Amino acid sequence: LQVSELAHQSFSKKPRRLPEVRLILLGERETGKSSAGNTILGKVDFFQTGVVTEECVRQQAAVATRQVTVVDTPGWEGGIAGTTLDRVKREIVASVALCPPGPHALLLTLRVDTLVRAGHVREHLELLGEGVWRHTILLFTHGDQLREGVDIKQHIQSGGRDLQWLLDMCKGGRYHVLTRDKNNSVIEGLFEKIDDIAIIMRPPINSLQRNFLIICSWNIVSLLFLNMYKQHLC
Ligand SMILES: Nc1nc2c(ncn2[C@@H]2O[C@H](COP(=O)(O)OP(=O)(O)OP(=O)(O)O)[C@@H](O)[C@H]2O)c(=O)[nH]1
Ligand SMILES: [Mg+2]
């Protein structure tokens, strides 16, 4: 490749593909977080499913060409009267420390066959700070439970104000549907959405651009000093 081509590539806005992806699964109890973790990592038994997840668990695997880290968390209590234990809240907060230097995305699991209560979700998700929404993707689980003839778009349309509010909070209406069948393209589609978040969250200048600016500034300062030195000699 010519130097000019390399420069063009590093400065262009072409979507980049993260070689390493760090994710946290969050959601109400029994929404399928642990199952989703296994599906994402392409494993059957990394995370224990069908039993209550009591503590955060981290698992890693190579998925296609990416190194993927998934942190599974205990779910918060659902139902109107459900009160989440402090221990569970502490685990949710601690999940971030398990994927240093921080997650690329938070996957909020929502069952397609259950009503969403936005206030309840917000209360728990914002334990990680108000900025969480910029990293959140709604992950619809139990996709196989959608009513016959209803697709996910129709489900969202009929999901009411709470679901719409959540979608609005996840800038650009980011969501993904997970089904149980092992379909690699479904997972790749999810990773591409995470790539998009990483681009939006990327600092205004990347490291190559920063080096370029440092070299330019250095050259300007050197020229100024050289001029001053010449004037001093004359
Ligand atoms: N039909 C169907 N069942 C699912 C799906 N995902 C998970 N399940 C089942 O739902 C139950 C709960 O799944 P888990 O993955 O353990 O849910 P969880 O959110 O980790 O549960 P907690 O750790 O208790 O909060 C299990 O019996 C799963 O087999 C799905 O996509 N379709
Ligand atoms: Mg679990």
Quickly describe the structure.
This protein is 41% helix and 16% strand. By secondary structure, the chain is an alpha/beta fold.
Notable characteristics:
2 domains; single chain; disordered N terminus; binds guanosine-5'-triphosphate; alpha/beta; 8 helices; 16% strand; binds magnesium ion; 6-stranded mixed sheet; Rossmann fold; 234 residues
| Domain count | 2
Count every helix, treating DSSP H or I runs of 4 or more residues as helices: 8
Q: Spans with pLDDT under 50 lasting ≥5 residues? A: 1-12, 203-209
Q: Quick one: how many beta strands?
A: 6
CATH architecture of the largest domain, by name, is: 3-Layer(aba) Sandwich
Provide the spatial order of strands within the biggest beta sheet: 2-3-1-4-5-6
Q: What share of the residues does DSSP label as strand, in percent?
A: 15-25%
The CATH topology of the largest domain is Rossmann fold
The percent range for helix content is: 40-55%
List cofactors, ions and other ligands. guanosine-5'-triphosphate, magnesium ion
State the order of secondary-structure elements, H for helix, E for strand: HEHEEHEHEHHEHH
Largest sheet: 6 strands, mixed
Summing up helix and strand content along with how strands pair, one would put the structural category as alpha/beta
Corresponding CATH superfamily of the largest domain: P-loop containing nucleotide triphosphate hydrolases
What spatial form do the alpha-carbon principal axes imply? elongated
Average pLDDT: 85
